[in-house]
Design goal:
By secondary structure, the protein is mostly helical. Among the domains are: 36 residues, no CATH class; 205 residues, Serine Threonine Protein Phosphatase 5, Tetratricopeptide repeat; 106 residues, no CATH class.
Amino acid sequence: MKKLIYIFITAGMLAFTSCNDWLLEPSPGVTNLEDFFTVGKTAIQTTNGAYMPLMWEFNNTYFPEWFIGDVTSDDALKGGQSLGDMSDAYDFENFKTNSNNGYLLDFYRAQYQGIARCNLGIQQIPLMKNDSALDASVQKRLIGELKFLRAMYYFRLVRVFGGVPITLEPINSSADWKKPRASANEIYTQIITDLTEANKGLWKKSQYAATDLGRATKGAAQAMLLKTNLYTKSYAEAKRWGDSIMLSNEYDLVANYADNFTLAGENGKESVFEIQYMADPMSDYGQGYGFTRGTFTVILTRSRSTKLGGGWGFNKPTQNLYNEYEANDPRRDATILNPKDSEIETPSQEIYLGSRYLNRKYALMNADNTFFKLDHATRGPINNKVIRYADVLLMYAEACSETNDLTGAKNALEKVRLRARKGASILPAFPYGTYADNKTDLIKAIRHERRVELAMEGHRWFDLCRWGVAKQTMDAYKATETTEAQAQMAAFIAGKHELFPIPSQEIDLNPMTQNPNY
């Protein structure tokens, strides 16, 4: 019998079970699954709980996904007080990571906790009877949410580690624990299966009450299907899902780019999927996974100087990224804060390997350049924008260009550039600058646009890897860096550094092959 609370009995006690009937009586405080999943509110609460591991950013160390998506790439340096501050991220930045990296262990385990929560709900909710809280439509939607979330957790894993073990049912005993490592292709196939099924049951964003905004939607599933098919180079299928989300008329670009990174701009018309955070005055030190409902990203990325927010100074934009912006592109100053000398209190702690820049997007800066006061010294309420409609447009442009629909690609690209320039005579439509009017240069222009539009949002590293240009890009970037930064960077090894090692503790628990060259 499955239990939500497991009772462990010593070997000596087991010897008497055949002649002591009292040992077979139900134990106090134990809830059977069939007793727990009896009312509709339980189905909703179980689904809500499956979202929570997406929020987690701290256990034994800090592990927001941008430490990989930004810091490993040419967009950002680790930052912090010194080289040794957050040493796990220092290894990412400099291609020195090994299988004992604490960040990777916490990140890996958080995703599997999310998968376990999804598996339980997917198994039990279809068996429940409908009641006032759980009609057939809500039941179908909740299952769709859980399949979307399971796909999201596996997507986060496969981009970092490649193939990983697949588990689609609750693990109820140690006999079920050890799973073979699936290939990356098998993981992507499962992701697409889950997202396709999720799309059938999910509601459109406009069908949700305001209090339920932030849940997975039909548009979110379609955007993830667009994205996943780009990763598998199934460009025609990616374009099909892009057409679907764009024709839904559920999403649009907000007029002002910077509004996406304000509390007022959360879950707005440009939002396709966000990880939800809220103000939380609770301290979490020593508590680990999931103790707080606020994000650490605000304090992690704010300047170490009190005049600029009094944070910890991580995820510092590079000069290479700063130079990528076209002249007068307003997105640069909405993304990168360039502090004045008078605002830097301790240059030796603030300027990291030559970079003084700061990530402005998640610093929660007010319009007058003051800083939003946090309810707790280390937690902020701003959501993580996982998928914006601008991202969808640029992914769609990529799918169109790869399927030779160059007109469709140009139209989608132009929508993003049009919003950025706000009607001014800057950022002309494609072709512009050195770009010629051909497919090759159009793809280059789309990749440039992804970098500047989505900078410091955790996309860059994963884009470089899926495009197959990580080696050449990182080598070229290294040549532009400061002497101090170059001195720290190990050589990028193609065929190795596109993935990270499976944590050694996980291999000890579940023997499996390690990624190449680790």
